[in-house]
Amino acid sequence: MGQQNSETLILAPGDPGVLASLRVEEPGVRLVSITQSIPDARIDGTVWCFVRWLLPEQSGLEMCRMLRDSATINAPHITMLLDSDDDDAKRRALSAGADDYLVGPATAPRILQRLKLYRSNAKRYAPPANGYVFGDLLIDPEGFQARFRGKRINLAPGEFRLLSHFAENADRVLTRRELIELASKDGRVIDERTVDVWVGRLRRALKGHGVPDPLRTVRSVGYVFDRVG
Question: Are residues 120 and 148 in the same domain?
Fold first, then answer.
């Protein structure tokens, strides 16, 4: 039976002094200390993980991958604890599945400060009731906005309408004829070449904000918005 706590904080590993301080400051949060394996029991709710770069019996990168692939923890937020401000270490941490990193000692005040920030961002960028979420990409048709990792993506009206239509029909091939009908709703008549131009503009806009390209070209047919995350 899974844990019903709304929030769980996993420390890998957990320093006794830090754990004691966190128990006082965050009495409503379940604390879990791990060094080698992932908990067998399912953990529901929001899970925050702080993983040291080097663990007693394995690397923090390996632990990060284990947490990200875990069948008992749904979408944990992982922060890698780095010993130094090293760009290569940061890159490797993010590539292994970390959401963020923290340079220097993982004291209780620093962890609490990060938790405050993460909670604020989670509340601010909660998915809209009628929106679409693909990993870090949020598309809100009613609010006429798209965000990636919390930051607004600047899109022209036609580009946003195109993106929303792709999101609504994720993983389905949309022919150029279908996209022409969509783009012509505002009274303009366009051809297949114009569709390609619009898709190209949408791709560049997403890429400019760091969004991995979700659009796949199906030669001689159209495009697919591949569902990720």
Answer: no
Q: Which of 146, 167, 149, 163 is nearest to 198 (CA)?
A: 163
Q: Looking at residue 49, which CATH number applies to its domain?
A: 3.40.50.2300
Which residue type sits at 117? L
| pLDDT tens digits, 96-148 | 888 889 999 899 999 999 999 888 877 655 656 678 888 888 898 877 888 88
**pLDDT reported for residue 3:** 44
Domain membership of residue 190 as a residue range: 132-225
Q: Is the pTM of this model over 0.70?
A: no
User: Does 157 sit behind a cis peptide bond, omega within 30 degrees of 0 on the bond before it?
Assistant: no
Mean pLDDT for the chain? 86
Closest CA to 205 of 141, 122, 137, 131: 137
- Report in angstroms the alpha-carbon separations of 57 from 13, 90, 107, 158, 185: 11, 21, 22, 53, 60
Instruction: Give the pLDDT confidence score for residue 224 in this predicted structure.
Output: 94
In this structure, the strands spanning 137-140 and 132-134 are antiparallel
Which residue is associated with the tokens 């706590």? 5
Inter-residue contact 135 to 214 (CB < 8 Å): no
